Every structure is written in structure tokens, then in C-alpha cells.
Amino acid sequence: MVGKALETLFIKIWVIVKLNLFFWLFSCCGLIVAGVGPALKTVNELFVSHEYNYKDITLKEGWISFKRNFIRGNIIFYALLLLLALLAYNLFLSVQIQGLSFLMIDFLLVFAMIYAAVTFQYSLLLDSYYEIGLKNLLKLAFISTLSNFTNLLKIAIGVSVILFVTWKFKGLILFGTFSMIQIWSFTATKSWRQTIDQRLELHA
């Protein structure tokens, strides 16, 4: 029993490390600037397809996925960065406002930034599950984030914890941070994906 539990634990750790190393490899293939978005999408897609079946997670499949998702991954990633930059700039400007309205505006802007980040995670997951156009993908991701506040909180809190632990243990940046964020998002949204599948079956 203990031996089986340890084996399962080591397999999960190896999958996390393996996917995170893939992320850095593919990011470098895109010279970081054009590689981070498709690399995140590739890591997400590999885990969605194989979960903890580490032998099925191969560099060859990852490379094929990276090339296939290169343009789409960059569009989604830089759409998020642009939106976050606009929100952050408005947050910077709002500091100059006095009184209670300052707190209300800041709260709304911070919430919007969290909402955008969670929507990005939803878009990666949904794009890995369904064949869907980019416009409809973004709509579905937006609706998915809005429809379940509990999942939004779970993803936001989980990612915050991962980033906090990473801040304490910098080595995770190389060996675990990015893959753990994708895996946690996958786990936190399981119930919502099942709901979408049920609705699709009803309308099939």
C-alpha cells in the first residue's frame, strides 16, 4: 500500500517536472517572446490528453503540438498580456484618485485582472478539449469563468499559492511552476467541463 502510494507520488512529480521542462524547451524554441504562449498551450494539451501517463507524454508529440499551436497560442497569450497591461495602467492611474471611489475602482480593476487570467486558463483548457473557432473559444472561456464563481476562486487561489511557494523556492520556476498551474487549472475545472459535455450531449 505504502509502496504504491509512493510510486503514484513519484509519477505525479515526474510528470510535473517533465512538462515544465518541455515548457522551457518550447519557449526557447520560440525565443521566449514568441514561445511562451504556444508552450503553455502545448503543456496544457499534453496533460489533458495523457494526464499522469508519463510514458505517453513525449517530446515528439509536444513538438508537433507546439508547431500546430504556434499562431493560436501567441494570439491568446498576447491578448491576455495586452488586457492585463491596460488594466494595470488604469490601476496605476487610479492611485491618484482620493476617497472611497479609489478603493472601489481598485477592487474592480484587480478583480478584472484576476478574471482575465482565469479566463486565459479556461481558454487553454477548452481549446485542448474541443475543436472550436478562436472567437467562439474566447466567448466560451469568458462565459465559463463567469458562470462558476467557485471555480474562479479555486483557480485564482491555487495559482496564488503556487506563485507564493515559487517565490519561496525559486527552483520551481525551472522544475514545476508552469506545469503545476496548468494541472491545477485542469483539476479545478473538472466539474464545469463535465457540465459542458452533458449539455453538448443533450443538443447532439
Structure description:
The structure is a single chain. With 204 residues, the chain is mostly helical. It has one domain. Helix content is 84%, strand content 0%. It has 10 helices and no strands. The longest helix is centred in the middle third of the chain and has 30 residues. The model has no long low-confidence stretch (mean pLDDT 89). Pfam families: DUF624. Keywords: Membrane, Transmembrane, Transmembrane helix. This is DUF624 domain-containing protein.
Assembly annotation:
single chain
Structural category is mainly alpha
Give the CA-based shape: globular
Q: Write down the domain tally.
A: 1
The stretches of 5 or more residues where confidence is low (pLDDT under 50) are none
Number of separate helices: 10
E-strand count: 0
User: In angstroms, what is the radius of gyration?
Assistant: 18 Å
Helix content: over 70%
Please give the alpha-carbon distance between the first and last residues: 43 Å
Order of helices and strands: HHHHHHHHHH
Q: Mind summarizing the main beta sheet?
A: none
Mean pLDDT over the full residue set: 89
> What percentage of amino acids are in beta strands?
under 5%
